[in-house]
Amino acid sequence: MSFVWIVPVLLSVVSAATPLLLAATGELVTEKSGVLNLGIEGMMLVGAVIGFAVTMTTGSSILGVAAAALAGAALAGAFAILTQLLLANQVATGLALAILGTGLSALIGKSYVGVALTPLPKLSLPILSGLPFIGPILFHQDFLVYASFALLAGVSWFLYRTHAGLVLRAIGDSHEAAHAIGYRVVAIRFAAILFGGLCSGLAGGYMSLSYTPMWAENMTAGRGWIALALVVFATWRPARLLFGAYLFGGITILQLHVQGLGIAIPSQFLSMLPYLATILVLVLISRDSAKIRLNAPACLGKRFHATG
Amino acid sequence: MLRLEPRGEFSRAWTYGSPLLAIVLTLITTALIFAILGKDPGQALYTFFIKPLTTSDSASELLVKASPLILIATGLSLGFRANVWNIGAEGQYTLGALAGGGLGLWFNNSHSGLVIPAMIVAGVLGGMAWAAIPAWLRTRFNANEILTSLMLTYVAQLILIYLVTGPWRDPQGYGFPQSEMFNDVATIPILISGTRLHLGVLIALLVVGLAWLLLGKSLVGFQLKVLGQAPRAARYAGFSNNKLIWFSLLLGGGLAGAAGLFEVSGPVGQLTSQISPGYGFTAIIVAFLGRLHPVGVLFAGLLLALSYLGGEAAQIDLGLPGAVTGIFQGILLFYLLGCDILIHYRLRFGRPRTTLGTAARPAA
Predict the structure, then answer these.
(1) Fewer CB under 10 Å: which end of chain A, C or N?
(2) Which one of B4, B337, B346, B356 makes the best mutation probe of the A interface by having the most chain A beta carbons within 10 Å?
(3) What is the DSSP letter of A125?
(4) CB–CB of A88 and B338 under 8 A?
(5) Contact flag A81-B338 (C-beta cutoff 8 Å)
C-alpha cells in the first residue's frame, strides 16, 4: 500500500490550521489581558476582503497581507474605544463587531466576487525543505504559515518570559491591583486588543490570499468563532493552541477526503464536522469547571474604570 | 481634558435618549457611506428610510418584516437580561421552520384545519429543541452557550440545505434547492385580504404583551432581572441559575422557531435554502436597541424591519449593494453601545474637583 497521498493531505491540514492558529494566537493575547473580543469573525472577513482588494489593485501580496492586518486592527480599535473608553459590554460589542464586519466585508467585496488571484508564493527553506516527508509539508509553505509559528513562539515567549508579558497577565487577572500598583490598565488592554485585531486580519488575509485565493461573502464560515473556542480548548496556553489548531485543521480536511475514500455520506453532514467538533471539545474542556476557573484570566470580560 | 464622571445612579432619560442619539449618529454615518459610494446622500436616505413608508401596503409590509424580528428579539431580550447569551437564534429559527414546515409538507395534500395549529406547535418545539442543546451543555457541562448556540446555527443551515437539496426537494422544481409550495392547508392564514399580513404578525404582537406582563409582574421576570444585575444577590435569594438558563433558552428558542415557521409558511411559501435574511442576528440588535424591554423591542423591530425594506429599495432604485442593510445594522448597534455610557456616566471637561481616587464599579 502506498502512502503517497498522505503528503498532500497533510499539506492541506497545514493550510486549514494556519488561519485558526493566527486568529487564536491574537485572541489569546487579548484574553490574557482580560478582554473578551467575540468579533474575530468580523475582523477576519474584513481582513480577507481588504487583503484581496489591495493585492488585486497593487499587485503586491506583501502589501495585501499588511493591509489585511491593519484592517483587522482598525476594527479592533473601534472595539477598544467602545469597551475600554466608553465601557461598553464586551460581549455585546464583540457581537456588534462580528455583524458589522460581515456587512462591511460584503459591501467592500461586491466587485471582487468570483475573481481569482495567484496564491501567495511558497517559500522553500533551504536544506530543510529537502528532508524526506516532513520537508515538503513543513518547509515548503507560504510565509504566513511560517509567520503563524513565529507568532505563536513570540507570544509564548512574551507572555511567560518578559516583564511586559507578566504585566499583561497581571492586568488580566486583577485589574484593580495592577492599577493600584500603577500599571496603565486601559492602555495595555488597548494594545492587546489591537494585537488581536492584527492577527485576526492576518488570518483573514491568509484565507483570501492563500487558502482559497479569491473573495466570497462569509468565506471564513465560522472560523473566527472556532478560533474563540480554541482559546478555551487550550485553557489559555499557547502550546495547546498549536495542538488545537492542527486538530481542527485536520477535521476540516477530513471532511474533504472522506468522500474520496468512497464513503457515501451527504456532503452537508461532513461539513458539519468542524462545528460539531467545536461543541464537543468545548464540552470536554468546560465540564471540569475548576480547570476553567484556574486557567481563565480572572478579569476576563469585566469592565474597568478608574477615576482620579 | 474630557473625562467620565459616574452619575451615582443611572439616568432614566439617557436610557431612552441613547437609542435616539445612536439612530441620529447612524443616519449621519450612513449618509457619509452613501456619499462615498457616489450616491446623493439626501436621495439615498430618502430611498432607504422614507420611500418604503409611502406605498399603499407599507404598513403591512413593515409589520410582516418586523414580526420575526420582534418574536425572536422578545425571547432573546429576556435571556440577555439574565446574561444568557443565546446568539444562535438563527439556527433555532431554521429548525422551527424545518420542524413545522416538514409537517406541513407531510400533510400538504390533506384537508384538515388542524394542520396549521400542529405546524405552529411543531415550529415552536423545533426551535426549543435546538435551544435545549446549548441549555443542556451549559447547565450540565458548563459549556459556553455563545459558542455552542452559534455552532449549532451552522449545523442547522447545513441540515436545511441537505433537506431541500435531498429528501424534501420538489421533484418538479427543476433541481432548485427548494421544497414544493405549501398548499392552502399548510399556509398561515392572511388577516387582511390583499395584504401579506398573516396570523404570525398578530401572534408577535400578543407575545410582546405577554412578555411585558412576564417581565413586570411575574416572579420569573424578577429573577431574570436580578440574576443579570446582581448575580450574587440572586444566589443568596436562592434563585436557581440553571432553571433560568433553561427558561431563557427554551423561551428564546421557541419564539425563534415560531418566527421561522411563520416565515416559511407565510411570506416564503415553501422551504428553500434561503429562508432568512439574517433575522436571528438582526434580532440581537433589536433586543439591545429596544433596551431589552418588550415594548422597546416592538419599536426597534419596526425600525430594523425598515432597514430591510430600505435595503431592497436602495438595491432596486439606486443599485446599492444589499450589504448596506447589514452595515446600517452593525453601525447602529456600535453607536448604541457607545452612547449607553451616558446612562451611567456624564461627560465632564477639565480636572476632577475631588481627589478621591476610588474605582467606580458601574453595573457591578
Answers:
(1) N
(2) B337
(3) P
(4) yes
(5) yes
B69 shares contact with chain A (CB less than 8 Å): no
Nearest to A223, CA basis, from A193, A243, A249: A249
Q: How far is CA A302 from the centre of its chain?
A: 22
CA distances from A280 to A230, A287, B151, B154 (A): 12, 11, 11, 15
**Beta-carbon separation of B357 and A286 below 8 A:** no
pLDDT band at B74 (very low <50, low <70, confident <90, very high): very high
Q: Is the dihedral of CA A305, B3, B6, B11 positive or negative?
A: negative
Q: Shortest CB distance from B338 goes to which of A86, A107, A176? A: A86
Q: Residue B321's closest chain A neighbor by CA?
A: A107
Pick the residue with more confidence: A44 or B57?
A: A44
**Contact residues for B81 (Cβ-Cβ < 8 A; gap 6+):** B215, B224, B225, B227, B228, B292
How many percent of chain B have pLDDT more than 90? 51
Identity (one letter) of the amino acid at B248?
Answer: S
C-alpha cell, B144: 459556553
Q: Which of A87, A102, A276 sits opposite B341 (nearest CB)?
A: A87
Spatial separation of the C-alpha atoms in residues A247 and A282, rounded to whole Å: 14
Q: Distance between CA B142 and CA B129 in Å, rounded?
A: 19
Long-range contacts of A136-139 (CB under 8 A, 24+ apart): A136/A7, A136/A11, A137/A7, A137/A10, A137/A11, A137/A14, A138/A14
B166 touches A at CB < 8 Å: yes
* CA atoms B338, B87, B263, B294: torsion sign: negative
- Considering only the beta carbons, identify the residue of B140, B166, B356 that sits closest to A308: B356
C-alpha–C-alpha distance, residues A128 and A247, integer Å: 24
Beta bridge partners of B4: B347
Residues 168-207 of chain B whose Cβ lies under 8 A from any Cβ of chain A: none
pLDDT at B175: 82
Give the phi and the psi of residue B57 in degrees, each rounded to 5: -105, 20
Per-residue confidence band for B15, with pLDDT thresholds at 50, 70 and 90 = confident
Per-residue pLDDT reduced to its tens digit, A63-89: 999 999 999 999 999 999 999 998 888
- What predicted TM-score, i.e. pTM, was given to this entire model? 0.90
Q: Kindly provide the b/e burial profile for residues B34-43, where b requires at least 16 CB atoms within 10 angstroms of the residue's own CB.
A: beebebebee
**Residue A304: predicted pLDDT:** 84
CB atoms within 10 A of CB A262: 6
**Which residues in chain B (270-289) have CB-CB distances under 8 A to chain A?**
281, 284-285, 288
Q: Are A40 and A227 in contact (CB under 8 A)?
A: yes
Q: What type of residue sits at position B35? A: A
Judging contacts by C-beta atoms under 8 Å, the chain B residues touching residue A236 are none
Pure H helices in A81-183: 90-109, 134-138, 143-161, 163-173, 175-181
Strand partners, A168: none
Q: CA A96 → CA A186, A191, B147, B285, distances in Å?
A: 21, 20, 15, 8
Touching A: B residues 220-259, CB under 8 Å: none
Cβ–Cβ under 8 Å, residues A300 and A172 = yes
At how many degrees (to 10) do helices A6-32 and A143-161 cross?
A: 40
Q: Say if residues A210 and A113 touch (Cβ distance below 8 Å).
A: no
